[in-house]
Amino acid sequence: MSELPGGPAEQALTLVDLADAGAVRFDTPIPGCLIAVDSNGGPLSDEAERIVGRATFALTQAPARDRRFITVDSIPDAVDELRQRVADRPVSAAICDDVLRAGDSNTDTFGGLMTESLAYSTLQAGREFRNWLAEQGPRRLADPPQPVILERNGGVVVITLNQPKRHNAFSNTLRAGLIDGLTIALHDPSVTGVEFRGNGKSFCSGGDLTEFGTFHDPAASHLARTRYSPALLLNAVHDRLGENLKAFTHGATMGSGLEMAAACGHVTAHPDTVFGLPELTLGLIPGAGGTVSIPRRIGRWRTAYLVLSGKTIDATTALGWGLIDEISS
Q1: N or C: which terminus of the chain carries fewer CB neighbours within 10 A?
Q2: pTM greater than the 0.70 cutoff
Q3: What are the start-end ranges of the H helices in the chain?
């Protein structure tokens, strides 16, 4: 086992080679993220299985069906990139790992979303987010005309994100429009299905970055996020409609866009769709329900990889992982 010495940034990542798993002992809690490396390939020993189960995720250069493993072209290159990203945002990385692990033993959606929001609010008051915010321009709330289009097609409600010039960035007004549509779908018994779409080149490129930092009270932000929650509504609509709650993704499907799509009962992706979770760059974690919706599809290990690495995946990889259900023709 190799551990970076020094302060919090240097202790943010611990690396374990599964070939040496029998020699590893964890006498104290790991300070940050634990990355397992499958340097030899082949069957895992009992000790290696123990390490992989405990790891944030495992890296391999071999094809892997096991959702605890991420296949990369070069393990040394992947490790170098992860070391740098995690060292740059050590607190956010560790808290992301904590929240995802908490979800392993918490199958209740409400509890998972509360945990996510409290962690997100904590990070909003932290130095890593403040450092990112200091590098940004003026903060403002978006106020686009008709940010969400609601249409009815028989028993199906079509909810279309409608900020195409901003790649449907998830703004406060877009959030309100989405809540309106989902509330109708939840309470109108004549609704038999919901289709979730986006106008323009992208389904949803993630949160509207110009709004980040406009709310200065993290505690009040937590209450607003959880009392007016599209994630909770999506879960309730999913409970009611199952696979008839459908998302049709294309282009950039990032951050909150991916988090919301993953909560749907059936996700279809255009072949050009690109998926990712870029929140760590901001000193944050997924905050639109993604620490619940995405692990339910691909496990906490691959979810953690998407956050910590900042890498994007294409539709074919997403289908193989189970992140989506179908690629459109």
Answers
A1: C
A2: yes
A3: 46-54, 75-88, 90-104, 109-124, 127-134, 172-187, 218-227, 230-241, 256-262, 290-309, 315-321
